[in-house]
Amino acid sequence: MTDAPPAFDLLPGADASPVVLHVPHAARRIPPAVRAGLVPDDEKLARELDHITDAHTDSLAEAAAGLAAVPPWRFVNRLSRLVVDPERFPDEREEMTAVGMGAVYTRTSHREVLRADGTDPEPLVERYFRPYARAMTEAVAGRLAATGRAVIIDVHSYPTEPLPYELHGAGPRPPVCLGTDGFHTSPELLAAAREAFAPCGETGLDSPFSGTYVPLDFYGKRAEVGALMVEIRRDTYMSEPGGPAGPGLSRLATSLAALVDAVSG
User: Which of 178, 198, 201, 215 gives 20 to 30 Å between its CA and that of 172?
Assistant: First the structure.
């Protein structure tokens, strides 16, 4: 009997790099025991994965790491966000709970039933969410110990047209959306991102998605931990929904590598 594939990977970069490229939503894998608790049939589930997965963002981060002068570290989720979403708050702070998409989703991106009403989220939180959070905390702590600072760059994508679950889908949907945090996103980090992604078209701010991911041990407490979310509109690099990547991925990888290098010095 072989061991199950890992739920996440920390892929080492240069010892001198403060950067962690975080890729939380690129995977489609759902363990069989988790699949048994999902309501949609296989066809509907595959369609939901097409819509909700940030396809090819793991390849984007890998390509950028290969291009960067100082290779960043990469923390990559190997399970679908339909197992647990590691970026959600696990409590009442999470606004997406209003549409059934807290740490453990009960509704799909089209607000249809994903898990039966009354499903207890705690077993999934304990099995998947907390180990992920601990490992990401350790990854950031490692960069702090090695370099005195850490920079988390969250790598996401979003559909050209809003999905029904989006709470703020009526705003601008630029080719690149930069999500920020008032404490963890410095003006210098934001300026570096705007410059790096300028060749990819317009860069917008906090629309249609806002905020950044920072492990709770550091969130709002450690200014040495910088954070920025990079949201790429999917039509710029792939066929929607859930199709193959196109030539735009290479241009985005070059820009992401430029951002990594800009904040690594």
Answer: 215
